[in-house]
Amino acid sequence: MPSPFIQTLILTGKLAIYTTSILLVIGLPLSYFMAYARFRFKPVLEALVSMPLVLPPSVIGYYILVAYSPNFWFGKLLSEWFDVQLAFTFEGILLASVVFSIPFMVQPLTNGLRAVPVNLREASYTLGKSKTTTFFRVLIPNIKPSLITAIALTFAHCIGEFGIILMVGGNMPGETRVASIAIYDEVQALNFDAANQYALTLFLTSFVILTLIYTVNRKSDAWKMI
Amino acid sequence: MPSPFIQTLILTGKLAIYTTSILLVIGLPLSYFMAYARFRFKPVLEALVSMPLVLPPSVIGYYILVAYSPNFWFGKLLSEWFDVQLAFTFEGILLASVVFSIPFMVQPLTNGLRAVPVNLREASYTLGKSKTTTFFRVLIPNIKPSLITAIALTFAHCIGEFGIILMVGGNMPGETRVASIAIYDEVQALNFDAANQYALTLFLTSFVILTLIYTVNRKSDAWKMI
Amino acid sequence: MENDIIELDVQKELVSAYGRMVLSIQISISAGELVVLFGESGAGKTTLLRMIAGLTTPDNGTIKVGDEVWFSSARGINMPPQKRNIGFVFQDYALFPNMSVYNNVAYGQKDRDKIFIDELLQNFGLTEFANRKPEKLSGGQKQRVALARALARKPKFMLLDEPLSALDAGIRTSLQNEILKAHSISNTTTLLVSHDLAEVFRLAQKVMLIQDGKIKGFGRPDDIFINNQISGKVQITGTIVKIETQDTFYLLTVVTGMNQIIKVTAFESDIAELTEGDRVMVFSKAFNPLVMKL
Amino acid sequence: MENDIIELDVQKELVSAYGRMVLSIQISISAGELVVLFGESGAGKTTLLRMIAGLTTPDNGTIKVGDEVWFSSARGINMPPQKRNIGFVFQDYALFPNMSVYNNVAYGQKDRDKIFIDELLQNFGLTEFANRKPEKLSGGQKQRVALARALARKPKFMLLDEPLSALDAGIRTSLQNEILKAHSISNTTTLLVSHDLAEVFRLAQKVMLIQDGKIKGFGRPDDIFINNQISGKVQITGTIVKIETQDTFYLLTVVTGMNQIIKVTAFESDIAELTEGDRVMVFSKAFNPLVMKL
Amino acid sequence: RIAAAADLRYAMDEVVAAYKTGNPQAILEVIYGSSGNAFTQISNGAPYDLFFSADVIYPQKLHEAGFTIHEPVLYAIGRIVLWSASVDVSKGISVLSEYPKARIAIANPSHAPYGLRAEETLRHYGVFDGVKPRLIYGENISQAAQFCLTGNAQFGIIALSLALSPNMQSKGSYFLIDDVTHKPLQQSFVILNRAKDNSLALTFAEFVSSPQAIKIFKKYGFVCN
Ligand SMILES: Nc1ncnc2c1ncn2[C@@H]1O[C@H](COP(=O)(O)OP(=O)(O)OP(=O)(O)O)[C@@H](O)[C@H]1O
Ligand SMILES: Nc1ncnc2c1ncn2[C@@H]1O[C@H](COP(=O)(O)OP(=O)(O)OP(=O)(O)O)[C@@H](O)[C@H]1O
Ligand SMILES: [Mg+2]
Ligand SMILES: [Mg+2]
């Protein structure tokens, strides 16, 4: 078994990667819808998607915790039908993390899609391509900077997420004890050296990953509309 | 004197508005630089700007607290030269909030600026307009969706910010006790009704504000490059 | 299909230079025909093509192609552009910035046909640029990519919005041949917008004259233009670019149209009111020119 | 200034249709001259204008305007475009999507001169669109806004990249007059790209022939074109659009250049190898046309 | 699995270590946090066997809600101290008035038991109204200690157990506050329903009241009887 330090870091990475991947799958169609669909209550949907930012994480965490509990219909349904209890498990914090990182994925993507000139889509349609093909072959490649920002923000936010996980996850080593919780713990224990060690590792790893991401991004800097 | 409830909400609003305004002033030139400047270590700068997301807020809060303390050069400088102590004051949480909301302002703006076709800038230059005029009269109006996203994200994030303020603010009523802290407090004290009341007010107010912002944004939906 | 007659009956309100204008077009176009749209800037040519392509929705009317209804405001039908089997060249090109020239051209093909694409690139003078991003092309090169991209798909119905406007005479002629070739090989019904009368005569089987959103004429080019403008004699308008004195007369150099230069002799009396730069008509009552094939 | 001679000596490496190509231009242009750039697609015309405007940096060389050095690779000088007091019309317009037509045109003016702008819009047939966003304009309308925007600033140096390519003959002629007017009133040095030979003759004081990045000719249009192509007689190239049979001979309709239609009589023997669509040269050994001022 | 209040951190670690020397194969996991958080989580089904709170109220509430198998058991009484990194505090509470601008960190009295006791003490000495504007509230007692340690607050009223911890001991001085000036800090624990058939949990609960464990608690400044 790896040391708790390594175990915590692996768990943190796993949570961040899973959350980002899941949100990519959800976020792409959602952003497409938000960017191009025209319906009356779109501003309401947009505001809803931003909501996770507005509420303090600890509060959101509290409400999620309540929702997961077997006394609540959602938790009851899960435990009775699937024999699943989400609170204090990795799956539980993953779900919470996915729900509350949505704005980080969706906002940059939506903006990126909006900035793509209409006639590129039109050109693709006149070439007989479906909306799906157009999305993957014309839109996505042309919003690469936004896509990368979305991934980077989501990933980074997951690594830093703390309030929700503290509430919902409860600091279980190997299961829900991610780095942010571990650091908090060490600070609380006044073990500043251990906290610094975590913080530094986190900082450096993320820094390197983000620098790499942005280096790749560099090539697709400003572009001219053709 | 208004009730603690109102006082807390006013303080929260004040913090969010001040932070957003200050970040707008800092973020616009910074994004401009990030979007168009070409230098070798740009990915490093970009990664640095995203860093506040990666570190858990409570950790960042802790480091800020250390930085503010009279034992540290920064705190020492402030207290010796200006007789200012930042910890546990509104100015202190404002500064912390500004520093750590930077990515929310800068990322969308940078992306927006990058998506503006180069030849619009060029056209403005050939019409004898300086970079500043071009920025305000050509670039900014053409990235309105990104600008609005940036403002909305920053504003929302400030309202929800919790970990840092908890660390740096010290929960002083009327000074640093913003809504997110108050809610946490009430949950800890098992006053779930009061907590729900705060959360609901926060939720509804933010929801209305964001819906309004996005409604204004609507008109500048997708645009064609001319 | 060979007998897919295209029946247009569409209305759309627009703003023209003289205020509100209703674009209102009723016409049948036979399958396989090459029709050139000719009309002033702002007459509604682009809008008409966009309505046929399904990119702009008419206020009301119907668009039928053979038995298929592409649009019908009465029946609430509006087939999306990707189903309409068309090729469209945009006035502003709309190339995909993320793809190389080759991939732009190949994008629309259902079955990748490398030989055909290579041939297209060759004929369009683009071989050297196959792996370039469109951003780095000149205006005329972009326009050629846009045309090649539309042709690569071999659609049943071609909509070309000023596909050659940015090109010089040489390459223009060779691309006109490409359009004619594509048209004759697969018998594609083609609608092409052009401002250039010579191009109209060179390409059009039929001309559709559009003015202020209405059809002002539809028929063979010589019926539309020649009978209106010419009454049997040679009449050439042009600009005097040079007046030279010979012994007893003057030699005028008149430039007409695209590439035409005529030398005209004139006498003192004729020349009195003429100066270089004047626009003149050159005509002849007795004119026996010869023709020679080029 | 009246005697701001423009001295160009610039090199830049580009990729042409035939592989690497060095754009290399050495020339002096007198102040107040109207020079038309003429050359094939991809010859380097746009790039040359962009280098003068300061939008593209030459690999090396110098650009001097009077006593001012705009660019010098040797001395490390590169004046930014906003200091160069130029007007530029982009091949792809580059209108500001956020501003109305009026504001696009007014944007470049230092001192707001409403009367001048209104007059410009009037002459450009854009009055009706003053409050519209460019997005809702037709291609030709956009092009007119781009030209009006550049003229509104009354710059000392005009760089026009195919400013009239999307326009039909009618509006084209009237905008050519606007360009000439602007040029003659304020004696603006003007560089204009055109593919249209008639336009060259109509506008140019000097023509700069560019081929593969090099200057192949610089001089008065008739020196550049006429002496090369014509040897004293009328020689008109065109396309046969119609062959009609008369009693003993044939009547050919030949379309030349932009708007020119010529009827030619021909005999059985002449006609043998001719069909409609053929490109022909019409010439005459004995031709006595008359001219009439329009 | 044990949920324990933050102030127990050092003492509990040692108690667990002592227990393990007697029972080497036992697997004990202690998770520290604020008592309030632990309470909220347990109420919502957190998988803990034992809950060591910093007061008696949270265990009592859990008991009333039927989450426990018995009444709360008192295991220790906490003491509070006045602590400072920069100032000699041996004179007691009166030094607070000698530094009229200095800030004083305490835990949040609205939910942290240590904060409430600190407030009572200040009231007892009659200085509460005077120092109230200078009070800084930590989320829990550990955070109040951080405020002092970093020097942002010159004084703090914190748990003796923290003042004795290796990280604070060498960094400042403390003054033990007389326990008559405030109500006692009764720290209780409960065995949760989940541990019903868990012999390990039950024996560990017994071990906590053993002389060996009491000695450890005392070493960290707790009062046990
Ligand atoms: N950004 C660039 N980088 C490298 N090569 C370029 C770039 N832009 C254009 N070129 C190449 O330089 C050559 C000249 O381009 P330029 O745009 O100056 O041509 P042009 O004479 O304006 O042609 P057109 O009449 O088609 O507009 C072309 O072959 C083009 O492919
Ligand atoms: N999106 C739009 N909404 C309303 N009016 C429009 C829109 N697009 C174009 N128009 C107007 O409709 C008229 C016809 O435009 P259209 O683009 O069809 O002209 P066109 O014949 O293609 O002209 P050009 O030769 O200049 O390209 C113009 O007066 C134009 O201003
Ligand atoms: Mg058009
Ligand atoms: Mg060009």
Structure description:
The complex is a heteropentamer, with 2 copies of chain A (226 residues), 2 copies of chain C (294 residues) and 1 copy of chain E (225 residues). Chain A has 226 residues and is an all-alpha fold. Chain A is 78% helix and 0% strand. Chain A has one domain: MetI-like fold (Orthogonal Bundle). Chain A is built from 11 helices and no strands. The N and C termini of chain A lie far apart (56 Å). Chain C has 2 domains: 222 residues, P-loop containing nucleotide triphosphate hydrolases (Rossmann fold, 3-Layer(aba) Sandwich); 57 residues, Beta Barrel (OB fold (Dihydrolipoamide Acetyltransferase, E2P)), CATH 2.40.50. Chain C is built from 8 helices and 16 strands. Chain C is globular, with a radius of gyration of 22 Å. With 225 residues, chain E is α/β, with parallel strands linked by helices. Chain E is 39% helix and 20% strand. Chain E contains 11 helices and 10 strands. In chain E, helix 1 packs antiparallel against helix 11. At the A-B interface, helix 2, helix 3, helix 5, helix 8 and helix 10 of A face helix 2, helix 3, helix 5, helix 8 and helix 10 of B. Strand 16 of chain C pairs antiparallel with strand 15 of chain D, so a sheet runs across the interface. One magnesium ion (MG) binds next to helix 1 of chain D.
Percentage of residues assigned to helices of chain A: over 70%
| Average pLDDT, all residues of chain E | 85
Report the portion of residues of chain A in β strands.
under 5%
Could you tell me which chain pair has the largest interface and how many residues each side has?
C-D, 96 and 96 residues
**Tally of strands of chain E:** 10
Main sheet strand line-up of chain E:
2-1-3-10-4
Number of domains of chain A: 1
Low-confidence stretches of chain A: 220-226
- The appropriate CATH architecture of chain A is Orthogonal Bundle
Give the tags:
heteropentamer, A: 226 residues, mainly alpha, MetI-like fold, 78% helix, disordered C terminus, C: 294 residues, alpha/beta, Rossmann fold, OB fold (Dihydrolipoamide Acetyltransferase, E2P), 2 domains, 6-stranded mixed sheet, 5-stranded antiparallel sheet, 16 strands, 26% helix, globular, binds adenosine-5'-triphosphate, binds magnesium ion
